[in-house]
Structures are given as structure tokens and as C-alpha cells.
Design a protein that fits this description.
alpha/beta; 18 helices; 424 residues; seven-stranded mixed sheet
């Protein structure tokens, strides 16, 4: 049987792409004797994809590159677990596929459309560029485009495969490649990507330099396979605990850090979550926000077992970062202090020992008056608020007194209010 050199049915490791209708239709455009697809329907699908992802340029080529970068197969997943070096035989199979893929991409896909469609597909600009983790990393397709279209370097299939291994090691594949943060879907019993994540950066959090530096140090140790600790961030509302964890995840996305947000109601699923994370070649921060337990809640025992290591130990690629408004995570009652001395001490030790399981505890204290003013001034400067320091401080003091005290969150709300007033 005679095959065209870009016949995707010959793929070995990228066979998942055969299930994609747009990929099949793009291939059929250049195959003589093949059943032709509806060019207008295909163009409409490409336009919808471009608007959904915010990816501009040649949307036919970029769609294929996007699928190549996302595809979860034995080569891409192994590359993500082996530092981008999946092995000789598997790489040879990938070279076979990339040889086919290069021909498909270089056959002038846009020219296969009618003239009126070429102008649309060749240089498409969506209304709004992507700004979230789902597609934000893939909006920069320059690495993949260079591998296939840089005529000055003219990479061989072998060189492309080596570069793809490094690409998958850096960005992951499948759901990992598309998202920077996940949550547990209790109905489907699987991790679901969070499409719109908070883009906060560490520099956005004014003050708390020691706390931020400790998070950076611990996270970088984790990334570099050095000993790292679970972290408990303790402090009042609005002091930047949760934002600090999110900022760490944003900062180290390119280093392989992914955030897994779980609630107390998900604790019973922790064994399933750990089993899933163990199979992936990335580093995961299990993020538990506002961690605390009432006296009748027993879920804390699951968390203690995870931290200490029960029968099944916590995977090496998982750390726990938790925030709480109180140092003692489990509420004490008067009953805990009744009874004989031995029982009383055992009960109290049981309840306060959870916090001790975290190797690092960082305290986010409420700012004093001068620190609060400095936070306000810094955020106002970044926001371009045209107000003198004296006037700004006076207004900030009035805002503080009419709200719930001093914190970074209160300061940000005050500046947002001023920005709205200036805009009017």
C-alpha cells in the first residue's frame, strides 16, 4: 500500500492526534484523492479555537503546533519524568513521527485553502489575547515554530525530538501543560484544571520580606530535589498568606511547579490525589487555604497521616503549603481540660501537634500604623494615585477606622477606591 509521506495514520507515539477532527481535516487538504473537507467549516473551527485561546498568527499552523505541544503520549509523559531524556528507542519512534509532522507543517497549509480564506487564516488576530494559565504559556509558540519553520537552522527530526523532550520536561503535557493550578472534582473523582488563576506576583505583596524569602528558599530547594519542608502560614485575614502561595506557584511555573488546591471536604480523597500526582513528572504544592478544625472534625488525622507518612508515604514530588488564621489548628474546648491529668494532656497534645507537623511556620502579623502607611504609599505609587503623602495618610487613616483595621488587603481596597474616584 502506498502512503503519502505526511500520512498521519503512520504515526507511532502521536496517534492521539488522529482523533482530532481539525487535524484530520487539515491533513486531507493536501492529499490528492482524499475526501475533501468543508473548507469553510474548517476555517470556522480554527477561528473559534483562536478566539478561545487568544493565539494569533497563522492559525492553521499554530493549531497543529498547539496539539503537538499538548499531546499526552508515551514520549511526552516519559520526557516529563526523565528530565527530557526519554531513551533511545522511544526517541527513535518519536523521530519517525516528527519526520511525518515536519512534512505536514511545511507543505503550505494556508495555501490549501481558497484565496478568500487564506487572508483570514494566515494572520489572524483574536479580539483578546490569552491572559490565563490555561493558554498563556502556549500563546508563546516561538520555540515550537522555530523547530519547524526556522529555515536558517533547518533542524533535523532528531534535533526536533531532542528539543521537544526538553520542552515537555519544562512545560509538561496533557492537562499539566494547559494549567498551572488544579482542584479536585469530587463527582468525576479526578483533578480538574483551574482556567482563570490569580496572576499575583511576589512583588505585588508589600512587606513580609522574610516570609517571602523563606517561601522562595524552600520552594527552590524542592525544585532542585533538596530537602524541603511543608509550610504553615499563620496570620490574620488580609495579610497576604494565600497570595504568597499563589505568587510562588506563578513564579515557578516554568520550573515545573503546579498548585493543587484542596478543601477539607476533599481530605477523604487524598489517597486518590496522591496516586495521581505520583504518576506525573512535576512538582506539586498541595495548597490548603484557611486550615482549621472544629473539635468534632476528625479529618485532621488524615492530614497528619499524610505529613507524617502512614502506610503509604507522601510522594517525593508533593509538598503541603497551608494557611490558617490561628496557630492551634484544632479548636480546644473546656472538655479537653477536664478529666484526669493524663487524659487532659493527651487530648491537648493530640490537638496542638498538627501544627508541629509543618517543618516551617511563617507568621504574617498585622502591620502597625507606620507599616500600614508604607503599604498604602507603595500601592498608591504603583497605581499612579496623584495625592500627597500627607493627604494619602490622612485618607488611609479614615479608611482604616471605618473598616476592619489594618492589613494589606484593607490597603489595597483603599487604593482601589481612590483609583475609582480618580477615574471618575
Amino acid at each position: 500500500m502506498t502512503h503519502t509521506c505526511f500520512d498521519l495514520s503512520r504515526l507511532l507515539v502521536y496517534r492521539n492526534l488522529l482523533n482530532d477532527r481539525i487535524v484530520r481535516d487539515l491533513q486531507s487538504l493536501g492529499v490528492q484523492g482524499a475526501a475533501k473537507c468543508d473548507e469553510y467549516a474548517l476555517a470556522a473551527s480554527l477561528i473559534s479555537w483562536a478566539e478561545e485561546t487568544g493565539i494569533a498568527g497563522n492559525i492553521a499552523e499554530n493549531y497543529l503546533l498547539f496539539q503537538l505541544g499538548c499531546d499526552e503520549n508515551i514520549f511526552s509523559s516519559t520526557a516529563g519524568k526523565t528530565g527530557g531524556q526519554p531513551g533511545g528507542s522511544l526517541s527513535k519512534a518519536a523521530v519517525h513521527d516528527i519526520t511525518i509532522w515536519k512534512v505536514l507543517l511545511n507543505k503550505g497549509l494556508t495555501q490549501q485553502f481558497g484565496e478568500e480564506l487564506q487572508a483570514v487564516i494566515n494572520d489572524y488576530h483574536p479580539i483578546q489575547a490569552s491572559h490565563n494559565k490555561k493558554t498563556g504559556k502556549f500563546q508563546d509558540l516561538s520555540t515550537l515554530r522555530d523547530l519547524f519553520f526556522d529555515v536558517t537552522k533547518n533542524y533535523t527530526p532528531q534535533e526536533v525530538v531532542l528539543a521537544l523532550g526538553r520542552y515537555y520536561d519544562r512545560y509538561g503535557c496533557g492537562r499539566l501543560a494547559g494549567y498551572g493550578a488544579f482542584k479536585w472534582d469530587s463527582e468525576r473523582r479526578e483533578l480538574a484544571g483551574i482556567e482563570y488563576t490569580d496572576p499575583v506576583q511576589l512583588k505585588d505583596i508589600v512587606g513580609y520580606e522574610y516570609q517571602k524569602a523563606e517561601l522562595v528558599r524552600n520552594t527552590e530547594a524542592f525544585i532542585n530535589n533538596k530537602p524541603a519542608n511543608n509550610v504553615l502560614l499563620v496570620g490574620a485575614r488580609g495579610t497576604g498568606k494565600s497570595s504568597s502561595v499563589k505568587a510562588i506557584a506563578n513564579r515557578y511555573f516554568d520550573k515545573g511547579i503546579r498548585l493543587i488546591e484542596i478543601a477539607k471536604t476533599d481530605f477523604k480523597h487524598i489517597p486518590e490525589i496522591m496516586a495521581a500526582l505520583r504518576q506525573w513528572g512535576k512538582k506539586f504544592i498541595l495548597f490548603i487555604d484557611d486550615l482549621s478544625f472544629e473539635e468534632f472534625e476528625a479529618e485532621y488525622k488524615i492530614l497528619k497521616s499524610l505529613i507524617d507518612g502512614g502506610i503509604e508515604v507522601r510522594p517525593d514530588n508533593v509538598l503541603i503549603y497551608a494557611t490558617s488564621n490561628r496557630r492551634n489548628l484544632i479548636k480546644e474546648t473546656w472538655d479537653d481540660r477536664s478529666g484526669n491529668e493524663l487524659h487532659r494532656q493527651d487530648t491537648i497534645n493530640e490537638k496542638i501537634s498538627l501544627a508541629d507537623r509543618f517543618g516551617i511556620t511563617l507568621f504574617f502579623t498585622l502591620p502597625n500604623q507606620e507599616e500600614y502607611f508604607r503599604i498604602v504609599e507603595e500601592i498608591a505609587h504603583r497605581s499612579g494615585i496623584p495625592m500627597s503623602v500627607a493627604e494619602l495618610r490622612a485618607e488611609a487613616l479614615r479608611w482604616e477606622m471605618s473598616h476592619s483595621g489594618r492589613s494589606g488587603r484593607i490597603a489595597k481596597q483603599f487604593i482601589d477606591y481612590l483609583a475609582g474616584e480618580v477615574a471618575d
